[in-house]
Please model this.
Amino acid sequence: MSSPPMPQPSIFHRLGVKPVINACGIYTDLGGSILSPQVWAAMTEVNASFVSLPDLLDRTGELIARLVGAQAARVTPGAAAAIALGVGACMTGGDGEKMERLPDTSGMSGEVVLQRNQRLRWKYTRCAAMPGARIVDAGDPRGTTREQLDAALSAHPAAVLVPAHLDAVDGTLPLAEIIAAARRQGVPVVVDAAFLNFPPERMRSFTAAGADLVCFSAKYFWGPNAGGFICGRADLIAAVAAIDFTRFESGRYRVFGRPFKMDRHTIVATALALAEWLAMDHHARLDTYVRQVRRLAELLGEIPGLVSSAKYFTMDEAFEDEPVNCLHLRFTPLARRSAADVATVLAAGDPSIQVIVEGDQLAVVMETVREGDERLIAERLRDALL
Ligand SMILES: *Cc1c(COP(=O)(O)O)cnc(C)c1O
Model:
């Protein structure tokens, strides 16, 4: 990412926090991603005037729906909020009294089904339960059978949830089978596809396969850390709109979604960042990482005890070969310090440099490193290791 150099002393210093060179990738706790100059300019422009947020949400929702080929869509304050609001929408179907009653689910279906082996790996189960839903397991430690899924669905839960990045782990049934079985029982399928946005066409694939609601996080498409959207069936998106933060004061019901609030800047930035992501030259984006990895390797030179290679650090935190986005350093016993110690030293400096560490491996992930910062990273790595 290229952006203006960090001014010194920075606002962060004035506030008593150290700026970070983020060589970990896109993480909420480090601020998500960097907004493009165009998206940033749009946020500045919309800051100059007010707008009806219900209208803005309706229009940006229509734009996003067109962009991802869904019937309807709505911006939410992140994918985690999209999951909570989506489940709330499935439980209440836009009924005002029910929306007001949540998280008390009396008088409605308060259960959502999740395959057991996905539930245990999916931290956002917590967010699905937030509107009051009781999570019902389909399956057991060996996986989920068709019979177990059908039994869970036949109790008419409000929804079945699928974290799509965990599709078919450990004996679980694939998304296509969940959709087919849920269709037969008339149960909506809600998909967490938070980071499944590449290649960009992939974003359309979940609704195209028949998922009823799909949740995406804007942090993964260079939108705001506090942005995201939900897309899918028009009637369910209308129920999301009914339960979200708007019209709380002016409407008839004190609905559940009021704390999931957004600024007009975030709403606009989410829609525009998505449009940019879909039109982006991703070859050029990936080439930048290759260049940065090569540059860092050159600047580092030979360091005793370090074996370096270009790798891909995936969104689910595994190392693969392609497409390259990081410099991977393996520490042998000849290294002066362990990978964990080096990471601690890098983090303690100013600016703090945050890297990925796993056992004897350290990775510098370039997706969130500004071009040019490789020099400082190399200096600090060499200082720690030579
Ligand atoms: C980041 C993430 C979320 C939450 O997205 P936010 O936009 O940060 O709320 C949900 N699911 C997965 C798999 C994620 O990686």
Remarks:
- The two ends are 29 Å apart (CA to CA).
- Residues 37-279 form a domain with the Aspartate Aminotransferase; domain 2 fold (CATH 3.40.640.10).
- The pocket of pyridoxal-5'-phosphate is lined by residues 28, 78-80, 124, 165, 192, 194-195, 217, 219, 228 (CB under 6 Å).
- The mean pLDDT is 96.
